[in-house]
Amino acid sequence: MESYSNKVMEHFKNPRNVGEMEKPDGIGHVGNPVCGDIMELYIRVKDNIITDAKFKTFGCGAAIATSSMVTELVKGKNLEEALKLTNQAVVDALDGLPKVKLHCSVLAEQALKRAIDDYLKKTTGKGLGLPETDPDHHEACEHELPEELK
To answer: At the N or C end, where does the chain have fewer CB atoms within 10 A?
Structure first.
């Protein structure tokens, strides 16, 4: 079994920007209740810049770590830069994820895009044209705790 990097463990044990945001400018909600990973990402935007981001996640350690990292990565970015953030950038910032946990980084990317989409719909009346639901993001979904998290 592959193990988690120190950065993943740090973001799991001490996640950044946890919690609900009062009056967010955009909310992104993604997940697969069958698998158990559910993420909500909240953003605050001023002058086209994401000034704050918070999250609530129900899921495994990797889901929490990727949610935490994506909030750190988007703060201070303009919307165009934030939209270019890929799941691979989240994985790289965490010094990697086990293959069976890569779907968590996809969820984090999708949550960010949905939050920006929500913001754009509220402010311009036009979103990003995202599908109503995301395609299934799980090739494998193993939620047994690795030794580091027990």
So the answer is: C
Whole-number Å distance between alpha carbons of 150 and 143: 12
The first and second tokens of residue 55, run together, are 């999250």
CATH class of 6-123: alpha beta
Compute the distance between CA of residue 36 and CA of residue 143 in angstroms, rounded to an integer.
Answer: 8
For the segment 52-64, what is each residue's pLDDT rounded down to a tens digit? 999 999 999 999 9
Tell me the pLDDT tens digit for each residue of 58-81.
999 999 999 999 999 999 999 999
Given the residues 41, 62, 91, 104, the one annotated as active site: 104
Q: Which of these is catalytic: 35, 53, 90, 141? A: 35
Distance separating alpha carbons of residues 32 and 16, to the nearest angstrom: 23
Inter-residue contact 57 to 41 (CB < 8 Å) = no
